[in-house]
Amino acid sequence: MTNNEIEKKLESKKVKPTAMRTLVYKALADSGKTLSLADLEQRFEKVERSTIFRALKSFEDNFIVHTVNDGSGSVKYAVCDEDCTCNIHDLHVHFYCTRCGRTRCMKELPIPNIKLPDGYTYDNAQFVINGVCPRCD
Amino acid sequence: MTNNEIEKKLESKKVKPTAMRTLVYKALADSGKTLSLADLEQRFEKVERSTIFRALKSFEDNFIVHTVNDGSGSVKYAVCDEDCTCNIHDLHVHFYCTRCGRTRCMKELPIPNIKLPDGYTYDNAQFVINGVCPRCD
DNA sequence: AAGTTAGTGCAACATTGTTGCAAAGTTTAA
DNA sequence: TTAAACTTTGCAACAATGTTGCACTAACTT
User: Fold this and answer.
1) Which residues constitute the domain of residue A88?
2) Mean of the pLDDT values across residues B79-98?
């Protein structure tokens, strides 16, 4: 993804595309994976944790990335699809490989619809499947 | 739940029922909720965090309690059902109330079956729904 | 009763996520 | 074009969480 495309993307979501933000987004998008804050820190040794953290937060707040809580102890981030609004219908299953620790967006597997008992509202969900990925098997 | 019942329960799962473990189990069972390590610490001000932690770990390893990763930042624990072996078929949805921070086991809602792409194995899963509970609505 | 094993408390620690503040950079508007 | 206003970044610090090593104590074994 070119810097230009990234800048447009960020602008379209009302996030000012600063140099740092563009770099962080690029790293995440190019990785094609979910990355934790620590993962990203390693890719930019010179950049402050808090800067990356705040970039990710602004992305998250503006539906540019979504987070996954895979139980590994650190939150992971992944770029959203083009038209994602991070609402229930855009959510997909994530797969956490207990062997390599990698977490993958299963975009082809939407989170199934659940009928909650009366009185509960449904805003959001996380569905993480643990197992072993083809790579590790 | 009486101490006697708890001791039997723990023994049946091959965990020696020490005084501390019995207390921790009782607190968790009696609460009828999911509790974090910090929650339990508060209930036993005199007891070491690590002791409670290790009690919970031994419970978890022996399928006496299960953990929930509700995204709140701390893992929560809940007692398993009588016959639970914590395998896929015993898993249920958890509900995290974004208002009060409480997490509830929805035992009546089993985790739906998902057909993963070839090459992936399915050991375990976490399905947490975020919303507002009747109490907070 | 002595020896072995298991459990507990204490202290310390790494990691994660987060914030306040000041410096640097960017935008606005005179 | 320069000053003022605002935003972003880096630094430092911090709390919370989860976790471990070690020594002491309790419990079990023979």
Assistant:
1) 3-136
2) 86
